[in-house]
Specification:
Elements (H helix, E strand, L loop, with lengths): L1 H19 L5 H12 L3 E2 L10 E4 L4 E10 L11 E10 L1 H9 L6 E16 L23 E16 L4 E12 L5 E10 L2 E9 L3 H4 L6 E9 L2 E10 L6 E10 L2 H8 L9 E10 L2 E11 L2 E10 L6 E12 L32 H5 L2 E8 L2 E2 L11 E8 L2 E11 L2 E10 L5 E13 H4 L12 E15 L2 H6 L2 E14 H8 L2 H10 L3 E14 L2 E11 L2 E10 L5 E9 L11 E5 L4 E5 L9 H8 L19 H21 L1
Parallel strand pairs: 5-6, 16-17, 16-18
Antiparallel strand pairs: 1-3, 2-3, 3-4, 4-5, 6-7, 7-8, 8-9, 9-10, 10-11, 11-12, 12-13, 13-14, 14-15, 15-16, 17-19, 19-20, 20-21, 21-22, 22-23, 23-24, 24-25, 25-26, 26-27, 27-28, 28-29, 29-30
Helix pairs in contact: 9-10
Length: 653
C-alpha cells in the first residue's frame, strides 16, 4: 500500500511538473552546462517577460526558451557567442541513445527553431575557434554536424571573423530548412576579405550542407563582389567557408585576372579588364574549369584547365585556345601599360617597361599549358599578326619556358623558344628564335598610294639568340648579349627609299615626277651583335643596281640612346647628290635625324664614304641565315660582288 502511494505520488508529481514545464530545472541546467562547456549559459532571464522555460520529457525532449545565451570563450571580446529568442528544441530519445551509443554518428535533432538568432563566430590565427568548447582539441577531427528534421530562423545576424582566412563578415540571414515545402536559405553579407571589400548574396535550399564536412552538394545561387572583381555562380555547392565542392556555371569579371586569382587562391597574371564564363567543378583542392568564353582586353580566348592545389607545388594544366590574342593584353606581365588609353608617361622619359617583375608569383605554382591561338596580334600597326600560333608553356619551380613555338605569318614561319628564369631575385632571360620564308611585302603593312609598289619585297630568313638578366624588361634589355642575323632573298626595294636615304635630290625628284619603281636587291643582309645592352651592326647592308646602303653605329638598350649612321655608296652619277651620311641620334622616345656636318660630295666625300664601308662585308657571302633554296646561288653571287667591290675600294683608299 505504501509503495502504491509512493508510485502514485511520483507519477502525480511528474505529471504536474510536466505540465508546469519543469521550471526548477532551469538554473541547475544553466550551472551544469556552464561547468561542462566552461562558458556562460543563460536559459532564463527573470526581468524579461519572454523568459519562459518549458521542458517536456514524456515521449521525448522538448525544450522551449524565451531567451537563450551561450557565452563567448574567455579570449574573445565578443559579448556572447550565440543569443536567441523564442527558441524551440525537440529530440527523440531513440535518436539521443543512438548518438550516445555510436561513436562518430551525427545527432538527429527533430526540430530547432528560433524567431531571432544573433551570433559572434571567431577563429584565431592559431586555430582556436569560438565553437570549440572545453576538452576540444583545435587540431582534432571535427564531430559530425547534427541532422535536422526542421531548422528554421526567422531573423538571423551572424558576425564572423576568421584570422586564418583574413575574413571579417557581417551577415543577415533567414532559414527554413527540413520537412517543409518552403526550404530556403537567404544570406546577405558585407565585410572585408584580404583587405578588399566583400559583398555576398546567397540563395540556397538550406544551411546544413554549407557547414557539414561530407554533405552532398545542394543548389546554390551565389553572387560575390570582391573589390572590383565580380563572381556569379549557379549550380551545386557545399562547405560555405572553404567551398570544397562546387559544380555549375560561372561568370567572373574584374580589372585584372590577378585580382580574381588572389581571391580564389590561384596565381594568375596581371591583365587588362576581363570577363570569363563557363563551367566550374571543384573537389577539395582540385579545380576544373572549362572557359567557353574569355574576354581579356581585346583578346578572345577559351580553354580547359585543371588546377591541383594539393601537391607540394600547385599545378595548373590545360589547353589555351582562342580566335585572337592581343600581345598588349599580356603587357602588364612584363611591366608594360595595360592599354594605350591608360598609358602614363614615364617621368624619366624612358620607353622600355621598367616595372619590376612579380617573380614570387612565378614560384607560387607550376604550369603545363598547350597554346593554340588562331591569331596573335603583335600590337603593331606595321607588323602583321601571327596566324596561327602554337606553343608549349611550362612553368617549373620558377622557370617559365615557352617552347615548341610554331607560328606562321606572311607565308613564312617562326620557331624556337623563350625562357624566363625567376628562381633568384634577378631573372635570367633567354631567347632562341628562327624565321624562314617571311614575305616582307605582306609582313610589313606600310601604306602606299594606289598603284605604287611596296617599299620592300622578298623572303626573309634569320635567327636571334639573345640573353639578358634583370628585374624588369628594361633591365634585361639593358644587359642584352647575343646575335641577330637576317637575310632577304629575291627581294626588291623602292627606288625612292634608296635615293631618299642617299639624299640624291635629282633622283628623288625624278621618282616623284615619273612614279616610283623597284630596285632588285642583289644582297640584303644584317648581322647584329648585342653586348652589354648595346646592339651594333657588324654588317648591315642593302645592295642594289643603283646603290649600296650601309648602316653603322649602335643602339643602347640600357640608356635608350640612338647612335646610327646611314651611308649610301652610289653606282651612278647625280648632279644634285649630297651623298653625306644620315645620322640618327637622340633617344628612343625622342629620335633626332640629321645630316652629318662635314665635307659634302664633290670634295673629299669619296674617301670619307669608302672608309665607312664595313670591312666585315667580305664575310657576307659565307654566312647563311636560312635554309638553302634555288635562289641561294644568285643571292651569294650578289653578295660576292658587293664584298669584292668593298675590298677593292678599301684597298684603293
Amino acid at each position: 500500500m505504501a509503495a502504491a502511494i509512493v508510485i502514485a505520488t511520483i507519477t502525480f508529481s511528474v505529471v504536474i511538473f510536466e505540465l508546469m514545464g519543469w521550471p526548477f530545472l532551469a538554473k541547475p541546467a544553466e550551472r551544469w552546462l556552464g561547468e561542462t562547456l566552461e562558458r556562460k549559459v543563460v536559459l532564463t532571464q527573470d526581468d524579461d517577460e519572454d523568459s519562459a522555460f518549458k521542458l517536456r520529457l514524456i515521449g521525448g525532449v522538448r525544450l522551449t526558451l524565451g531567451n537563450f545565451e551561450l557565452g563567448a570563450p574567455s579570449w574573445s571580446e565578443a559579448p556572447y557567442m550565440v543569443k536567441g529568442k523564442n527558441v524551440t528544441l525537440e529530440l527523440n530519445y531513440s535518436d539521443l541513445l543512438a548518438w550516445r551509443g555510436e561513436t562518430g554518428s551525427a545527432l538527429n535533432i527533430d526540430t530547432l527553431k528560433a524567431d531571432v538568432l544573433d551570433a559572434h563566430l571567431e577563429r584565431l590565427a592559431d586555430g582556436q575557434a569560438s565553437w570549440q568548447f572545453a576538452g576540444n582539441d583545435p587540431d582534432a577531427e571535427s564531430k559530425p554536424v547534427p541532422t535536422f528534421g526542421l531548422l528554421a530562423i526567422k531573423t538571423g545576424n551572424v558576425r564572423y571573423n576568421d584570422a586564418q582566412l583574413d575574413l571579417d563578415l557581417n551577415a543577415e540571414l533567414s532559414l527554413q530548412e527540413g520537412q517543409t515545402d518552403g526550404d530556403a536559405l537567404k544570406v546577405s553579407a558585407q565585410g572585408d576579405y584580404q583587405t578588399k571589400k566583400l559583398n555576398i548574396d546567397l540563395a540556397s535550399t538550406g544551411v546544413l550542407p554549407w557547414v557539414a564536412k561530407d554533405a552532398d552538394p545542394i543548389p546554390v545561387d551565389l553572387k560575390i563582389t570582391l573589390g572590383t572583381a565580380k563572381l556569379a555562380f549557379k549550380g551545386m555547392a557545399t562547405d560555405a567557408l572553404k567551398l570544397q565542392k562546387l559544380s555549375g556555371r560561372f561568370v567572373v569579371s574584374g580589372p585584372s585576372l590577378a585580382s580574381a586569382g588572389g581571391a580564389l587562391g590561384i596565381t594568375l597574371p596581371n591583365t587588362p579588364p576581363f570577363r570569363t564564363e563557363g563551367e566550374l567543378i571543384r573537389d577539395a583542392s582540385t579545380w576544373k574549369a572549362n572557359f567557353t568564353n574569355a574576354t581579356i582586353g581585346e583578346s578572345r580566348l577559351k580553354g580547359d584547365f585543371v588546377f591541383e592545389g594539393d601537391k607540394d607545388q600547385p599545378l595548373l594544366t590545360g589547353v589555351l585556345k582562342g580566335s585572337s590574342l592581343v600581345l598588349a593584353d599580356l603587357g602588364p606581365t612584363v611591366g608594360a601599360p595595360v592599354s594605350k588609353s591608360n598609358q602614363v608617361k614615364n617621368p624619366s622619359g624612358r620607353v622600355l617597361p621598367d616595372k619590376p617583375f612579380d617573380l614570387p608569383s612565378l614560384r607560387a605554382m607550376n604550369a603545363d599549358i598547350r597554346i593554340d591561338i588562331d591569331n596573335l596580334d603583335l600590337g603593331s600597326e606595321i607588323l602583321k599578326p601571327l596566324r596561327p600560333l602554337r606553343a608549349h608553356l611550362l612553368l617549373t619551380d620558377g622557370v617559365l619556358r615557352i617552347s615548341e613555338i610554331d607560328a606562321k605569318t606572311a607565308q613564312g614561319e617562326m620557331a624556337g623558344m623563350v625562357q624566363l628564369d625567376g628562381r633568384e631575385d634577378v631573372a635570367m632571360w633567354e631567347m632562341d628564335l628562327k624565321w624562314e620564308g617571311v614575305q616582307l611585302e605582306q609582313w610589313l603593312a606600310i601604306p602606299r598610294a594606289a598603284q605604287e609598289p611596296p617599299y620592300f619585297t622578298g623572303r626573309m630568313n634569320g635567327f636571334a639568340k639573345l640573353k639578358g638578366q634583370g628585374q624588369s624588361t628594361a633591365q634585361i634589355l639593358g644587359s642584352l648579349a647575343g646575335t641577330v642575323r637576317t637575310q632577304v632573298r629575291n627581294g626588291t626595294m623602292s627606288h625612292l627609299v634608296i635615293e631618299a636615304a642617299g639624299l640624291d635630290a635629282a633622283e628623288a625628284l625624278g621618282v616623284w615626277f615619273r612614279g616610283d619603281d623597284v630596285l632588285q636587291m642583289t644582297c640584303a643582309y644584317a648581322d647584329l651583335l648585342a653586348e652589354d645592352g648595346v646592339l651594333r651592326p657588324r654588317v648591315f647592308v642593302i645592295d642594289t643596281k643603283d646603290s649600296a646602303l650601309w648602316v653603322n653605329g649602335g643602339i643602347s638598350m640600357k640608356t635608350e640612346a640612338l647612335d646610327l649612321r646611314v651611308v649610301v655608296t652610289p653606282k651612278d652619277f647625280s648632279p644634285m647628290s649630297l651623298r653625306t651620311p644620315l645620322l640618327v641620334r637622340g633617344t628612343m622616345a625622342n629620335p633626332d635625324v640629321s645630316l652629318e656636318k662635314g665635307p659634302l660630295a664633290g670634295k673629299i666625300a669619296g674617301a670619307v664614304l669608302l672608309s665607312l664601308i664595313n670591312p666585315l662585308a667580305a664575310l657576307i657571302p659565307f654566312v647563311d641565315s636560312g635554309t638553302p633554296d634555288p635562289d641561294q646561288s644568285a643571292e651569294n653571287k650578289g653578295c660576292y660582288d658587293l664584298a669584292t667591290r668593298s675590298k677593292a675600294q678599301r684597298e684603293k683608299n
